[in-house]
Fold these 4 entries.
Entry 1:
Amino acid sequence: MSNAFSGNLAQLKLMDVLRLLHASNRTGQLELQHEDGRSGEIYFDNGQISHATYEDAFGEDAVYGLFSWGSGKFTFMADITNDERSTYLQTEEILLECVTYATEWESVRRVVPSARAVFRLSTRSMREFSLRAEDWSVIQNLDGQRTVGEIGDLTQLNELMASKVIVRLFDLGLVEFAGEREDDAEAVDAVPDEVLHQAEKELTLAIGPMAPIVLEDCAEAIGYKLSQLPKDMMPYLAERLAEEIPDSERRVKFQEAMLEIMQHLYS
């Protein structure tokens, strides 16, 4: 094997790539790129997985998360190392767990093609069924616009668990496929980070150090992850935040500050 090689995950599965690097005792960086812009990195040290990153995940969780991809490109560069150590299991154990994840994702993909898939409540006739708590949590977030990935974040089920619930609901005839969102980055004109920081600062003045948590919770209460909050939802967020301020004088000051912030946001 050469010091650098690359390929397509549609042709050479991630499991096969990991097994190859492990069996050949390679040291280097495996970089993965998805066509939707997501990326991940897995570092090998003499065939052992030593560190991995994917979105907010590290270590074994990052490796398992990358099995959600049905396609993408990979590049391995030998002798590129990273001093961080985020894995705790032996690579043999990680690979055994990866087999489970690969199998689960393969079964999910017959219904949920990707994290960008969108589902809605079905108009099909339904047979008898009973719903579990996680079924309800997903149903409540099905609006024909949110992606499976977004629903996984909102329900805190993660993408795989949310996908498995949707497969179950699909098989029951409760939901139907509505298409895939082509480009999430352009789909939402999100509130800039600096505006969210200003809102957090004003909320901290009103209620104290719990402000960051309250801000996240209120955003989720209106159906959005804070980092993906559309600009046109900012007034609704401000209203929810104001309701969390028990002191009437501080509430008024907060509302005035938020009005000024929104005037700049929409100008």
Note: Residues 248-266 form the longest helix (19 residues).
Entry 2:
Amino acid sequence: MNDDGSIDDRAVNNNNDRDKILATIASIVFEFASRYPERTVLFTGSTLERTRLFRIVLTVNYEELDADFDIQGLLYDGTIERFPRSKSYRGFMVKRKKS
């Protein structure tokens, strides 16, 4: 938090809580998708590095996530495609699969 009370989403504090933050984000997405399965969640990092980190996490956990979610990547030209794990994206979209 900045001195004026605002939040800087680009701040780097190196307090080793990255995995806790990512787990919190995943938990929120799972909860939201459970309550609103017809809705799509769009997310991106506040920097290219953070967006890349999201891609890495999606790739590492792909098989588990793919069982419950349709995962798409948002390309820099605005194109949306099924997430093939080998490309750089501007953002990501996930939606709960119909059961």
Note: The first helix runs from residue 18 to 35.
Entry 3:
Amino acid sequence: MRFLKKRMKKPLEIVAISESEELIATLPDELQAMDSMYLIRNGRPYAQSAAAIRCLLYLGWHWRILFPFAWLIPSFIRNGMYRMISKRRHN
């Protein structure tokens, strides 16, 4: 969250999970069960690495150019890396 807040160029509302329980309840069941970051863009929910990659669109141009290349990595690898980083991000 701090990484995004410092570097955002486009407005993005960031809400803690504790404040968004009603919103999470509207998501599909498989997304509700995830312990992940969510991004809802144009009414469509994204979670895990898909949400992180879409967040690149809200950062400066040098981050946005990574967006199309990040999609080339298969989702099972991206999500595995996302889970590994999210477990260790506070260390």
Note: Residues 2-88 form one domain.
Entry 4:
Amino acid sequence: MTKTVDYTKMMKDMMGAFPMDTSAMQDAFKSQAALAEKMSKVALEAAEKSTEVSTKWTKSTLAKVGEVSTVKEDPADYTKAMTDFASAQAEMTAEHVAAFAEIAKKVQMDTVELLMAAGKDMQEEASAAVKKATDTATKAAKATAK
């Protein structure tokens, strides 16, 4: 009566009675890690391109500001310089916003493509797991029936 119950052995015996195939879990983890890696590449590529567009926009703006800040002979030239700057800014804004839109469009297309491929892979893995489980259950049922 004073003997303590070995719960570790009891759990080991219980888990041994219900064998599990952990390869499905490992495959699922590998698939998720691969998807995360591909999604990270898409995000990093978009960040790199966005940075390039931002840098180009900033350099262009600074160059135009340099033109505005030069000394002019006639006061009307200041008005013209500001008007030219505003016009150039509007044009650059449209150009760069379009570039950002193209980056976003590519990210969206790549993401949908990756998710569709991942969904197809998961469907195939699930089908294989169900088939394997069915085969195992059928074998166990046949063995029990004998």
Note: The mean pLDDT is 87.
